Amino acid sequence: MRSAHARNAPVRVPSAVLVELYCVSGFDEPIDAVLARGFVQVVTTGARIARIAGHLLARVDAGSEMAIDALVVATAVRLGGGMIVTHDSEDLSALAANSPNVAIVRV
Predict the structure, then answer these.
(1) 99: helix, coil or strand?
(2) Rounded mean pLDDT for each run of 10 residues along the chain, 107 residues in total
(3) Whole-structure pTM value
(4) In total, how many domains does the chain have?
(5) At a CB cut-off of 8 Å and minimum separation 6, what does 87 contact?
């Protein structure tokens, strides 16, 4: 995020991702601190992103167990592409396989 901020590149986080982050005990304060800095925009997922996500899940023959990952990729697709930074790249890579403007970067 520091690199994106230094380059004035937008950092967007689908609101659904926050569900996964907040469910881990002790993470609320660090998450809130990052969001409070103001260079991360939380993106809500509407019907268009949900439709894209559903189609991505169907393409890889997956169910709701990958719904959050699909929403992340669908958000990137809907916003015209971008880089998704993750520690769990396998599912995201499968979902983004047919989206050349979406790059998955493992950290």
Answers:
(1) coil
(2) 79 93 93 92 95 98 96 97 93 97 95
(3) 0.91
(4) 1
(5) 106, 107
